[in-house]
Specification:
By secondary structure, the chain is mainly α. The chain has four helices and no strands.
C-alpha cells in the first residue's frame, strides 16, 4: 500500500500483470484528488505510521494474531519484551547508519543506465 506518492516513480517503470493501462496510486493522491473534486481542502494527510496503526487491528483479525505493544500494561517491560525491543532498535540503528553511509535513499529511480 502506497501511503505517499514517493514510490510511484519506481512503480511507473513496471507493467503489473501485463495491464498496460493500470498504474499504481498513493493514498495521499486519492485523498487529495477526491477532496479537490468535492471542493474540499484536506486538513491533514495520514502518515505511514498513522496508516500502520489503523491497519493493525484488521491485520490481527484477518491473520488470527494478537498484536501487542512491546510494553506491559503496568509500564514495566519483561525480559522477553526488552530483548525484542533491543533487537528492533539495533536493526533500525544499523539500517539508519548503513543508509546514511550510502548517501541516503534516492528520491527517484536512476535511469542513466538505460
Amino acid at each position: 500500500m502506497n501511503i505517499t506518492p514517493e514510490p510511484l516513480k519506481w512503480f511507473d517503470l513496471v507493467m503489473a500483470c501485463g495491464l498496460a493501462d493500470v498504474r499504481a496510486v498513493s493514498l495521499e493522491d486519492l485523498i487529495t484528488r477526491t477532496a479537490t473534486n468535492n471542493g474540499i481542502i484536506p486538513v491533514g494527510l495520514p502518515s505511514v505510521r498513522d496508516v500502520a496503526r489503523g491497519l493493525m487491528p484488521r491485520f490481527a483479525q484477518v491473520f488470527g494474531r494478537e498484536v501487542v505493544k512491546l510494553q506491559t500494561v503496568d509500564g514495566e517491560t519483561d525480559e522477553e519484551v526488552r530483548t525484542l525491543r533491543e533487537i528492533v532498535d539495533r536493526a533500525e540503528e544499523d539500517a539508519r547508519k548503513e543508509n546514511e553511509q550510502a548517501g541516503g535513499w534516492p528520491s527517484e529511480p536512476d535511469l542513466s543506465g538505460r
